[in-house]
Write a structure and sequence with these properties.
Elements (H helix, E strand, L loop, with lengths): L1 H8 L5 H7 L3 H11 L7 H4 L3 E3 L7 E12 L5 E11 L3 E3 L1 H12 L3 E2 L1 H16 L3 E10 H4 L8 E10 L19 E5 L3
Parallel strand pairs: 2-5
Antiparallel strand pairs: 1-4, 2-3, 3-6, 6-7, 7-8
């Protein structure tokens, strides 16, 4: 990793600053180990404490799950919240396990928001054998805030539904239902 960091540091033109960065190698290595630890975890690792039920007719929803991750496109952070809903069949998982699925498995990898949203829903379906799953993520991308368009208020909203919750667009967040869309962006006024 030291060679890779030296190459990264070479982008800093000022020799004095570069010398100061050289002591950061270990700290950056530990940081990356944590930030990208999701590659060593699977959904089965966190959705592992379950309760078996006869036949659960309702929908379970966790809102405002905070996540921080890195965009694989620009290698820049993006962060926001996720809402995860699922309609169980015979298995209910602990609600903290849903938070771990978002934060410890999926957000600890290089991501594209659209794919992360889909993968969380698909994991809920596959591991819990749910009737339906729905995920909505709302995120600010630093590649939009700090470079390029330079818009601090742009919020990207992505939703994905599968099974019985396939058509939940706009319903989970309390908005008026809209035609099914994979990606929509909106500007949030400060």
């Amino acid at each position: 990793m030291a060679d890779n960091l030296d190459r990264l540091f070479s982008f800093v033109g000022n020799e004095e600053i570069r010398d100061k960065l050289a002591g950061s190698r270990e700290r950056i290595g530990r940081s990356f180990d944590e930030l990208f630890s999701g590659y060593a975890r699977k959904a089965e690792d966190v959705l592992n404490e379950v309760v078996y039920v006869e036949d659960y007719p309702g929908v379970i929803r966790m809102e405002s799950i905070t996540f921080y991750t890195f965009c694989e496109h620009h290698f820049a952070p993006f962060f926001g919240t996720a809402t995860v809903a699922y309609q169980p069949r015979h298995v209910i998982t602990g609600i903290g396990k849903i938070v771990r699925l978002v934060r410890d498995v999926h957000a600890r990898r290089l991501q594209i928001q659209e794919l992360m949203t889909r993968d969380i829903a698909e994991d809920m379906m596959r591991v819990l054998k749910a009737r339906g799953a729905y995920v909505e993520t709302r995120a600010r991308h630093l590649c939009i805030c700090s470079r390029g368009p330079g818009d601090d208020n742009a919020m990207t909203v992505v939703d994905y539904g599968v099974g019985t919750l396939k058509d939940m667009t706009g319903v989970v967040a309390g908005a008026v239902p809209t035609p099914r869309s994979v990606l929509r962006s909106e500007v949030i006024e400060p």
